[in-house]
Amino acid sequence: MTLAETLADLRHRTASARHAETGQWVSGMLRERIAAGHLPPGTKLPEESLCDALGVSRNTLREAFATLSAERVVTRIPNRGVFVARPTADDIREIYRVRRFLEPGALAFTPAEELTPARLDGLRQAVASARKAREAGSVPGMAGANQEFHAGVVALAGSDRLDLLMAQVLAEMRLVFHSMGEEATFHAPYVDDNARIVELLAAGRSTDAAALLTGYLQRAEAQLLSIVAEPVR
């Protein structure tokens, strides 16, 4: 999706939704577009066009930019403007440090009686979508479905605060994926790991599911760092 298409989509959604003109709402809209892969790293975010598309003031947009900058999702370059960020190796290490606390914890500490078939259904659907994308050779499809799976893992904890934190993490992760291009070998193996995690949860083995996910995140971090190929500082 191009920037022009993204702006058109934002205009459509803004016109069809009631909202308070707040920086939090705007940052959520932009974060969602970045997490969906519609705004790749390096994309300039033009103030005038975004204000028009979202129907907000420049002050409100700048408030949103400040929030996203603090999350390392965008970066402001003096005299040039605001751009979607390009994650570094240090950013990847920090992202995965957060994920190793957040995701296995959501699995290990959600009471077994709350892991009903209905609550696990979203995870199963994400796995099914990822398998379909893998069969079709769609790397963006696999990446998107795996993102949905991990958002669903954290959602098991039933915390709006954790869901917001995960949304921030996944927006950064999407930027990391852009640096890899069409690297199918990264995403494909984790589809089966995700399926195994659901099986363990359904069997009441949350601790084992958390352990599997911890190891999986460690492998993924190592793979991404080898692709980024930046020296450890």
Distance between the first and last residues' Cα: 35 Å
- The parts where pLDDT drops under 50 for at least 5 residues are none
**Oligomeric state of the chains present here:** single chain
N-to-C SSE string, H for helix and E for strand: HHHHEEHHHHHH
Report the average pLDDT across residues. 87
Shape summary = globular
Determine Rg (CA atoms, Å).
18 Å
| Alpha-beta classification | mainly alpha
Task: Please characterize this protein's 3D structure.
With 233 residues, the chain is mostly helical. Helices cover 72% and strands 3% of the residues. The chain contains 10 helices and 2 strands, in the order ααααββαααααα. The protein has helices at residues 3-15, 23-35, 47-54, 58-70, 89-109, 117-136, 139-155, 160-180, 184-202, 206-228; strands at 74-77, 81-84. It has a two-stranded antiparallel ribbon. Helix 2 (23-35) crosses helix 4 (58-70), helix 5 (89-109) packs antiparallel against helix 10 and helix 7 packs antiparallel against helix 8. It is globular, with a radius of gyration of 18 Å. The mean pLDDT is 87.
Brief descriptors of the model:
two-stranded antiparallel sheet; single chain; mainly alpha; globular; 233 residues
Write the layout of secondary structure elements.
Blueprint: H1 3-15, H2 23-35, H3 47-54, H4 58-70, E1 74-77, E2 81-84, H5 89-109, H6 117-136, H7 139-155, H8 160-180, H9 184-202, H10 206-228
Antiparallel strand pairs: 1-2
Helix pairs in contact: 1-3, 2-4, 2-8, 5-7, 5-8, 5-10, 6-7, 6-9, 7-8, 7-9, 9-10
Briefly summarize what is shown.
The protein is mainly alpha-helical and 233 residues long.
